[in-house]
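Board notes, transcribed. Complex of a protein with inosinic acid.
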Amino acid sequence: MTSSEKRELVFATNNPHKLSEIRRMVGDSIRILSLEDIGCHDDIPETEPTLEGNSLLKARWVKDHYGKDCFADDTGLLVDALDGAPGVMSARYAGPACDPEDNMSLLLKNMEGITDRRARFMTVITLIEGSDVIQFKGEVNGSIATHRDGTAGFGYDPIFIADESGTTFARMDADAKNAISHRGRATARLLAYLKDGECHRL
Ligand code: IMP
């Protein structure tokens, strides 16, 4: 790569919310490509029983099939009173349609009458650069609200109250959420590594 060429990394997602969150954090330093940008329309398997495994599976898929340096994330919402559910099943909690409204409705239903509402989001990012494979983790503690509140963000944001803000993620603007969120923290660690070689492995 010459000094005039910008470093490129594929982010193994087509989720527009995740792409804009990460591009906002990365700024101009690195060109982040989506799966769409590299012509990948594959149904990438997420069959591992852990966030670490699924994150690695997605990144490995892009590297093996498209030959690109890349990173992939996998996120779970872990609820204490539900023994860590929905966890690795967060996207498909209410079924294979991966519908966020259905997922939230089911979680609120399963939390009815439960007073211990503690939960946390966890993200694992796997970076594959050349032959190097490195994982970064980010977490945020909070609780499950009793009803939806707010319209920003995506996924479970309307029912997740972060301890540090006291509001649901869906009531926070993008920068405020990125500053404390699971993915924001994992991404900050990824960026520190990419910029300075500083590494906080799992
Ligand atoms: P995945 O990383 O796309 O597999 O995410 C798993 C599930 O967690 C999906 O249902 C997402 O919508 C949800 N999720 C991931 N990140 C966030 C977030 O930042 N806020 C709310 N929900 C999220």
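The chain is about 30% helix and 25% strand. Residues 73-75, 77, 90-91, 100, 103, 153-157, 169, 181, 183 surround inosinic acid (CB under 6 Å).
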